[in-house]
Specification:
mainly alpha; about 0% strand
């Protein structure tokens, strides 16, 4: 069964859209509104990086995710290690930790 991809993710297309479709199509994760919200959130962060001309960081995200790291842990690490990022990006760190915690709780439930 093919699941609908959020309109926000569809609109931007690109890298995160490919990751989202791959996870859904390969059934690595089961579809839920929570997962769609996570990818919309990642898409927002991706757009903020793009709007701030941070292509080097975008390239690092692409490299690390295709190398097998989770998108959430990559964003957390990048925000924690790049202290010069704009506040519009770093202010999302708490949400990333919430996603990480929720995923761990699901894993052990």
């Amino acid at each position: 069964m093919r699941h609908n991809v959020s309109t926000q993710i569809k609109k931007d297309g690109g890298f995160l859209n490919q990751i989202y479709k791959t996870f859904i199509n390969l059934n690595y994760i089961s579809y839920s509104p929570e997962i769609e919200e996570e990818f919309e959130f990642y898409n927002t962060l991706y757009k903020l990086l793009k709007n701030n001309n941070l292509q080097i960081i975008i390239d690092e995200i692409k490299y690390r995710v295709t190398d097998g790291e989770t998108l959430n842990s990559v964003f957390i690490d990048i925000i924690n290690t790049n202290k010069a990022l704009p506040l519009t990006i770093t202010s999302h760190l708490a949400i990333l930790y919430d996603i990480e915690n929720r995923n761990w709780i699901k894993f052990f439930s």
